[in-house]
Structures are given as C-alpha cells and as structure tokens.
C-alpha cells in the first residue's frame, strides 16, 4: 500500500509517521509513504502555488496548475489508485471508509491550505473528498496524517494481532468495551470482579453488554449499523428504557382556532381516528399528555364518549393497550387552558412549538430541538393543527416553529396523524 501526500509543508510529516505501529509498518515496507512538495511542480520563478480568488473575498486560493501536474505525475494509472482531497466539505471520514480505502494500491492525498483549492481540481482529478469533522483546520496535512494512519491499520501485516482490529470500536456498529489494567484498585475504584474470574465465556458476555450500553450512551448513531442477536437487542432495549433521558413533552391537537381553505377561522370536527392514532404515537414516545382542544361542547361530548369507551367502558376488555394509550388524552376548551394545566403540573410555562406543513421564517430543525428537549428541564408543548393549519394568533405566540416534514416531491399533505408520528420519532426516538 502506497500513500502519496502532496503538500506545501513537507516538513510537517517529519515526525508524524516515525512512531509506533506506522513506523514499524514503514520499516517492514508494508506501507510506503511519500511526501511530495507541491512547489516542486510549479513553473513560476517564485514557486508560487496560490492566487487571489475570482469574484473577490478574503484569503488566497491554491492554483490548479501545480496540483494538476503533481497528480498527473504521481498517480499510477496502472494500479488501483484513488485521489483524495482533504476538505471540511467532504464526506465524514470513518472506520468503514478507512477499511474500504485499505483495498487500494495507492492513495494520493491532496492537502489544502489558505481558503482551499481551485474547484476545477476537484472536477478533473479528485475521486473522493474527505473531512475529519465539522471544524476548520488550517491545512489538509492534519487530515492526511489521520487518514494515512487509520487506513494503514487495515493493511494486512500492519497490526501484529488482527484480532485487535476486529474487537475495536466501530466494528459491527459498536464501541469497544471498557478496558482495565493493573493495579486492581486505583484511588478506590476496583476493576470489575468478572474480569478477575478467568471465566472467558462470562467475560465475553459482560464485554458485549458493556459495548452495547456504552455505544448507546456515547455514540447511538452508529447502532444503526449494528447486527445484534435478538438477545443482544433485548439488552439494548432494556438499557434504553432504564436510561431514557428525562423530558417533559406535551402535545395538543388544535381544532380551534384553525383555518379553512379560504383562510377563514373555523372550528373543525374531532376525528376518532386522530384520537386513536395520536394517543398511540404519544404513548410510544413518552409524551406526558395529549390534549384535544375544542370549545365545541358537542364535540367534547363525542370525544369523551370515545375515550371513556377505551378507558372504563367495554373497550378495556377488548384491548388494554388501547386503554393505556387513551390514558394520556385530555379534552380542553382552549390552548390557554392547556398551558395553564401544564403550568400547574410543572411549575413552569411550557415552551410552545408550532408545527406547519408550510415554510416559515427562522424555523428550528429537528436535531436542535431534540437537544433542547433533552437538555432542558422546561416543559414543551407541541401544537398540531387540523383543517388548513393553526391560526396566526396562536402561531405568533410560539417559541419555536418546527421545519415541515418533507419528501423529495411537491406533494405535502400528510395527515396530522402521520405528521405527528414522524415528528415525535425525529424528536424523541431512541434512533435505532
Ligand atoms: C482553512 S481550510 C479552508 C476552508 C475552506 N475555506 C472552507 O470553508 O471550506 C484549509 C485547508 O485545510 C484542510 N481542512 C481544514 N479543515 C478540515 C477538515 N475538517 N477535514 C479535512 N480537511 C480540512 C483542507 O485541505 C482545506 O483546504
């Protein structure tokens, strides 16, 4: 495996690869790392590699000519080779990419500096853009060193013990279990008993459990790639329930004041299918209460009859999971009544979140709101509309307007039940 790194600071790499595993791999000629000075590929007297940006703006841009010449000379087209541009705009580098890259014979790494590289280099020479994360380094040399090291570990012969690659973090969508070494007692903290028993089968089970638990705690996004046995999935499920974040989320389905098609303010009828489905959505995602908001007495009576049927009536005998879901439903005259009730329970006004199928100014995204909900002990009230959406007088009071749920089409007419399910999943799901 050959790495060719093109940089304007070749000295940067003087010590980076001269330690530990990568140094040994170089000594054994398992990997070969060549550092190329980009200035050697310039044709101008001052070995200039950059120029001012077209269209104005701050800083300098790396010129395409020397990079083009360097790649044309260095890339070996007879081998399985790939040209990688290090850039914060690239795909996020990870373990899977490292493993895939280890199957190439040659990796050419372009290190940017200044404001980056002329876009045409990308179009003409680059096969893959890689970023090490969402931050800005002053040069691509940092990323090139990281990529070279992580990819080398997958090259056969680089690691003495191939087992250590297999058990390491990110394999099978899991982080590695906690590791301990001597002393057994450090500042009063003892090594877990099980690791001292010598019972390797039990130790394996313990380690798997710890891997699952800490992945959920530290990096739950990677669990999506995990291939767990049913038993392991049960461990995960129980751990998620026991360690659920605490949040205070309420939802309300607004039947008044809402718009009709002509944008007149009306009151809509309560639909039993909404009450059935949204109560189940809310219960699944740990919502504290689902308020049905309508001032129309006849509608309230109808809704109450439905709820009573499932909580105290014949429905209980028929399906007790429905009764459990219906327990969270409450009928209120107005949104103000809902807010007053939440205030009474929580000793705090809820933050009002308004949902809409239409685009609005300054909308909040799902991840940002999810973070606020989990990191804040404030109650949150999410308002879902009926008819043609909730009236402006209410939306003006909202603390946050949530971005609409959208597909890659112009059709945007989800039922409120579907929108509620999707929104609650994005905000409150355990994500796998
Ligand atoms: C100061 S940065 C240029 C950032 C560029 N103006 C932008 O906003 O996308 C200079 C160079 O550092 C490297 N670099 C900076 N941050 C990086 C990251 N997170 N991952 C990979 N390379 C990075 C790239 O090679 C980049 O061309």
Walkthrough of the structure:
- This protein is an alpha/beta fold and 432 residues long.
- The protein has three domains: 2-164, Alpha/beta knot (3-Layer(aba) Sandwich); 185-242, tRNA(m1g37)methyltransferase, domain 2 (Trp Operon Repressor, Chain A, Orthogonal Bundle), CATH 1.10.1270.20; 249-428, SPOUT methyltransferase, trefoil knot domain (Alpha/beta knot, 3-Layer(aba) Sandwich).
- It has 16 helices and 17 strands.
- The chain has helices at 20-27, 64-74, 95-101, 119-125, 141-152, 162-167, 200-218, 230-242, 272-284, 297-311, 315-318, 320-326, 335-346, 366-375, 392-395, 416-428; strands spanning 2-7, 32-37, 50-51, 61-62, 81-92, 106-110, 128-131, 185-186, 189-190, 248-254, 258-259, 265-266, 289-293, 329-332, 351-354, 379-385, 400-401.
- A six-stranded parallel beta sheet has the order 14-13-10-16-15-17, with helices on both faces.
- α9 packs across α12 and α14 crosses α16.
- The longest helix has 19 residues, at 200-218.
- The radius of gyration is 29 Å and the shape is globular.
- The site of S-adenosylmethionine (SAM) has 20 residues, from β5.
List keywords for this structure.
16 helices, 432 residues, alpha/beta, Alpha/beta knot, binds S-adenosylmethionine, Trp Operon Repressor, Chain A, 3 domains, 17 strands
Supply the helix-strand structural class: alpha/beta
CATH architecture of the largest domain: 3-Layer(aba) Sandwich
Count every beta strand, where a strand is a DSSP E run of 2 or more residues: 17
Level of helix content? 25-40%
Count of all domains: 3
As for the CATH topology of the largest domain, it is: Alpha/beta knot
Radius of gyration: 29 Å
Gross geometry: globular
Number of helices: 16
Poorly predicted runs of 5 or more residues:
none
Side by side, the strands of the main sheet go 14-13-10-16-15-17
Give the termini distance in whole angstroms. Answer: 36 Å
Strand content: 15-25%
Bound chemical compounds? S-adenosylmethionine
User: What's the main sheet like?
Assistant: 6 strands, parallel
Arithmetic mean of pLDDT:
95
CATH class of the largest domain: Alpha Beta
Q: In CATH, what is the homologous superfamily of the largest domain?
A: SPOUT methyltransferase, trefoil knot domain
């Amino acid at each position: 495996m050959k790495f060719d790194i093109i940089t304007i600071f070749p000295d940067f790499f003087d010590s980076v690869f001269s330690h530990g595993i990568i140094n040994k791999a170089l000594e054994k000629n398992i990997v070969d790392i060549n550092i190329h000075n980009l200035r050697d590929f310039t044709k101008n007297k001052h070995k200039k590699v950059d120029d001012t940006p077209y269209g104005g703006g701050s800083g300098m841009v790396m010129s395409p000519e020397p990079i083009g010449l360097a790649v044309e000379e260095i890339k070996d087209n007879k081998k399985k080779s790939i040209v990688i541009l290090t850039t914060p705009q690239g795909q996020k580098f990870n373990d899977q990419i490292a493993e895939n890259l280890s199957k190439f014979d040659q990796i050419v790494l372009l290190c940017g500096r200044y404001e980056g590289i002329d876009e045409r280099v990308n179009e003409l020479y680059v096969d893959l853009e890689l970023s090490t994360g969402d931050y800005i380094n002053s040069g691509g040399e940092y990323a090139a060193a990281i990529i070279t090291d992580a990819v080398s570990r997958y090259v056969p012969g680089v690691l003495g013990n191939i087992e250590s690659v297999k058990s390491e973090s990110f394999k099978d969508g899991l982080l590695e279990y906690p590791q301990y070494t001597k002393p057994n007692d450090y500042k009063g903290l003892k090594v877990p008993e099980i690791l001292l028993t010598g019972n390797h089968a039990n130790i394996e089970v313990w380690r798997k459990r710890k891997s699952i638990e800490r992945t959920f705690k530290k990096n739950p996004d990677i669990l999506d790639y995990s291939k767990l046995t049913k038993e392991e999935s049960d461990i995960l499920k129980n751990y998620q329930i026991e360690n659920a974040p605490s949040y205070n989320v309420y939802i309300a389905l607004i039947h008044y004041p809402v718009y009709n098609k002509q944008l007149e303010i009306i009151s809509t009828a309560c639909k039993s299918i909404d009450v059935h489905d949204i109560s189940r959505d809310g219960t699944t995602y740990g919502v504290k209460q689902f308020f049905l908001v309508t001032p129309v007495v006849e509608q309230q009576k109808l809704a109450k009859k439905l709820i009573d049927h499932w909580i105290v009536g014949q429905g209980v005998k028929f399906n007790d999971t429905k009764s459990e879901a219906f327990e969270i439903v409450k009928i209120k005259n107005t949104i103000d009544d809902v807010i007053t009730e939440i205030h009474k329970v929580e000793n705090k006004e809820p933050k009002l979140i308004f949902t809409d199928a239409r685009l609005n100014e300054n909308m909040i995204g799902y991840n940002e709101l999810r973070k606020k909900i989990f990191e804040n002990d404030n109650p949150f009230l999410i308002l879902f509309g009926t008819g043609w959406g909730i009236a402006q007088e209410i939306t003006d009071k909202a603390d946050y307007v949530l971005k609409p749920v959208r597909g890659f089409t112009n059709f945007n007419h989800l039922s409120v039940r579907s929108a509620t399910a999707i929104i609650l999943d994005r905000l409150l799901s355990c994500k796998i």
